[in-house]
């Protein structure tokens, strides 16, 4: 059975466009201790917007 690592936790990226759309990904806490911000596609508004990490 694989165990869940504390170094690579599962995080949610929530759209800043206010649509409530989320992406789920993993990140390395040692290399990126701050909150993650990525520019990704939001299919509800049909354009690229910033997605910020929520915990």
From TrEMBL:
Q: Does the keyword Cytoplasm apply?
A: no
Q: Which Gene Ontology biological process is one annotated for this entry? A: translation
So which residues are the signal peptide here?
Answer: none
Q: Name one GO cellular component term.
A: cytosolic large ribosomal subunit
Q: Name one Pfam family in it.
A: Ribosomal_L33
Q: Domain of life of the organism in this record?
A: Bacteria
List GO molecular-function terms, semicolon-separated: structural constituent of ribosome
Q: Which UniProt keywords apply?
A: Ribonucleoprotein, Ribosomal protein
Q: Family assignment? A: Belongs to the bacterial ribosomal protein bL33 family.
The protein's name in its UniProt record? Large ribosomal subunit protein bL33
What species does this protein belong to? Propioniferax innocua
Please name the taxonomic classification of the source. Bacteria, Bacillati, Actinomycetota, Actinomycetes, Propionibacteriales
């Amino acid at each position: 059975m694989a165990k869940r690592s504390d170094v690579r936790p599962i995080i949610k990226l929530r759209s800043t466009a206010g649509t409530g759309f989320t992406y789920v990904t993993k990140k390395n806490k040692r290399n990126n201790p701050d909150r993650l911000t990525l520019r990704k596609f939001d299919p509800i508004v049909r354009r690229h917007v910033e997605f910020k990490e929520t915990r």
